[in-house]
Amino acid sequence: MSKSSRLRHLSSNTTNNSASSKQSNIKWRTIFAIVLMYIAIVMNWEWVWGILFLIWVVPDLFRGVTYFIEPIAKDENPVLYWIIVLTWLLMSVYSLSTLFIDWNNY
Questions:
Q1: Which whole-number Å values give the CA distances from 47 to 1, 3, 16, 97, in the listed order?
Q2: Residues 30/38, Cβ–Cβ less than 8 Å
Q3: How far apart are the C-alpha atoms of 19 and 21, rounded to whole Å?
Q4: Which pTM does this prediction carry?
Q5: Which of 90, 84, 92 is nearest to 66 (CA)?
Q6: What pLDDT digit, counting tens, does each position of 39-88 carry?
Q7: Nearest CA to 72 among 15, 12, 7?
Q8: Per 3-state DSSP, what percentage of the chain is helix, strand, and coil (rounded to 5)?
Q9: Which residues contact 97 (CB under 8 A, 6 or more apart)?
Q10: Are 75 and 2 in contact (CB under 8 A)?
């Protein structure tokens, strides 16, 4: 499946879901993540960003498309795709490592 067909599929699912839904389509996971993000900022919890980065990158690995400013498909831009995915993974590892390592001492 090419990038354009994947993107059309994703956008048509979004359109179909919102157009065909007569009742409120509340995105509880998204709302929870936003609230968690605000709490993480106020509490200075860097490890939360590691969890969020993982939540962002794992589906990208399965779909073959990642998003950074614009959609990047693995089959059309493999080097850029892997740079972005590895960046998210490294940022996740770093953020989660703050649970165990105080990087301010280095």
A1: 35, 32, 36, 7
A2: no
A3: 6
A4: 0.67
A5: 84
A6: 999 998 889 999 988 988 999 999 999 988 999 999 999 999 999 999 99
A7: 7
A8: 70, 10, 25
A9: 50, 103
A10: yes
